[in-house]
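User: I'm writing a short methods note and want a consistent example. For FAD-dependent monooxygenase, I'll paste the sequence; you return only the structure tokens, no commentary, since I'll be parsing the reply automatically.
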Amino acid sequence: MPFLLRNLTLSPGAEESALRPLAAAKLGVREAEITALTLVRKGVDARKKGAIKLVYTVQVTLRDEARVRPHGDVTRVETAAPARFPKLASSERVIIVGMGPAGLFAALRLAQYGLTARVLERGRDVDRRASDVSRFWRLGELCEQSNVQFGEGGAGTFSDGKLTTRVKDPNCSWVLERLVEFGAPPEILYAAKPHIGTDRLRAVVRGIRERLIEEGFQVGFESRLTGIGIGQGRVQSVVVNDADEEPCDSLVLAPGHSARDTYALLHRLGVTLEQKPFAVGLRVEHPQALINEIQYGRNAHPALPPAEYAQTYNNEATGRSAYSFCMCPGGVVVAAASEAGGVVVNGMSGYRRNGPYANSALVATVGPADFTGTSPLAGVEFQRELERRAFVAGGENYRAPAQSLLDFIGRGGGRILSSYRPGVTEYDLATLLPAPVAATLREGIEHFDRRMRGFISAEATLTAVETRTSAPLRIVRGADLQSLSHRGLYPTGEGAGYAGGIMSAALDGIRVADAIAARIAAN
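Assistant:
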């Protein structure tokens, strides 16, 4: 039975081969007794700026395990039995709507059981989608069905490709292993804060699609869900592009958080929906070198990765919070609109994170009390109104309204330096945002600077508006993961209100696939 060793440390730039003698010393054995050493976790400890360390957890196999007793940072690894996926034969017609992480991993999981499905995506394949996005960023020509929000891979395809999650789920390793299988960097298996990067992620998504087709799945692009046939309280068919009706027994609905027309369709059909809180705000952009200095100190070792940060602030009097979100080291701020006449900003990084700027969302919480009316679609309209106002403020040409951080907090001065394309227009962002949101963001920025001295900088720029942090509603489902109101409808992922990021969305898609397989096996 292998051993798990925690808290092995190396200096930045040191060769990882040095871990073997460190492990041997910790175990009290000769190095030659180690037959295998595998990285389990690697992180950066930057709490002491003058003594930054790389911290490792490793799994070690020995020739003679009986010589070592668990102690302190040394524990035995309980080897879990490999997951079993009984092969199932079924004539059930499963349709998956959406090729983001929830939809793709639901499909991959069904394939493990020998099941197949038809997979529909309103947008285009990842290569044509990348071309459409590039045209929008260069020329301001928006394709409403193929953009940063819609298309193969989902919204996360144009992001940093973060895989961190607070969810404790045994399927996390299954997701990571599948991603590596399709071309993700192997270090995501052990990095404390794994990421793929938008450039690598596109190839991974393409590889998943090709595998699904090999497994017998049918994939349809530019196939938008426009209707659902209901009979006796359950799903019986789907309508695609207002034209083609296809029979369906189980509908895995993974629409993404921006599929507003899908939400409207569900509302018309009487599917149980509910309002939920989310967050809106701005993107902040700093020179990456400044963030490195804040986090690592001056003269930090060049082998250290581009620095990240995560900050939160709570105002107990108002009940609102501000926080950083989707931080992109060495990345760019991107135009992420999916509707004509609206401006939306987001962030994106490549795998190497080697751009000159760091950016992050700075958002404040909003909820039903901020919305107009009790409709479950009220949060959608709240988002849409902010995006329309940002479009007008930017010049009605998809330029984003922007302001120096110093101006926004009332200190004056500062330059506007933004990576956003097709460009920015200087604007007083406090007049664009709801007053409680602007006030909470200002308070949050001051708080962040107390924890990260230098965060308030003349070199920091804010762009608006960040509205697509998470779904503005929830498609309510029961313990069996089916809609409360419509049997056979399985809402899943971030767009359904049950996830927040690539990893948690993939895990939710897996849960839905397992539920479908379990039901089929029981019949």
